[in-house]
Write a structure and sequence with these properties.
The structure is a single chain. By secondary structure, the chain is an alpha/beta fold. The chain has one domain: HUPs (Rossmann fold), CATH 3.40.50.620. The chain is built from six helices and five strands, in the order E-H-E-H-H-E-H-E-H-H-E. The chain has a five-stranded parallel beta sheet with strand order 3-2-1-4-5, sandwiched between helices. Helix 4 packs parallel to helix 6.
């Protein structure tokens, strides 16, 4: 199927370094390889609101938070470079973006909408019951709020 025949021209995939994110990346690469779609690979460096409160209260020193963000951004850069290489080795046109946001799900949805993508691919950890309620679900948030189709890789 060529790109002119495919309903997907621009696909975004969210990666986080987990086996679930790696599966989503592999699925997105294969879909883009078959359809000729452009792949946009994103990683979210999550902000922690509780850290801001702790800083305000003097409980967590600012240098510790700065170190967290430096390490998180280094990891994000490494993950995105690795993911881009995998896509390019498969013959897929791809680009990467690191997003800073308090909510990964919201960041992915906003990015996808701004970029005018046709499909979002996310992985799922398959959480059920209380774990899902307590931890929330990035894939669930994307499915509920995305303006386009969403593929959840398992």
């Amino acid at each position: 199927m060529s790109n002119s025949e495919s309903r997907y021209k621009r696909v975004v995939v969210a990666v986080d370094g987990s086996k679930f994110g790696d599966k989503a990346l592999s699925d997105a690469i294969e879909l883009c390889r078959l359809s000729g779609a452009k792949l946009m690979i994103v990683n979210v460096v999550q902000e922690f609101p509780s850290m801001y409160m702790s800083v305000a209260e003097g409980m967590v020193p600012q240098p510790a938070i700065d170190d967290y963000y430096k390490a998180a951004r280094r990891f994000s850069d490494h993950l995105l470079k690795r993911s881009l290489k995998k896509a390019q080795e498969s013959g897929v046109v791809a680009e990467t973006s690191s997003l800073d946001a308090p909510s990964p799900g919201e960041a992915i949805v906003e990015y996808a909408e701004k970029q005018g993508v046709d499909l979002v691919v996310v992985g799922t950890r398959g959480l059920t019951g209380l774990k899902r309620v307590l931890l929330g679900s990035v894939s669930r948030a994307v499915v509920e709020h995305a303006h386009c189709n969403v593929m959840v890789s398992r």
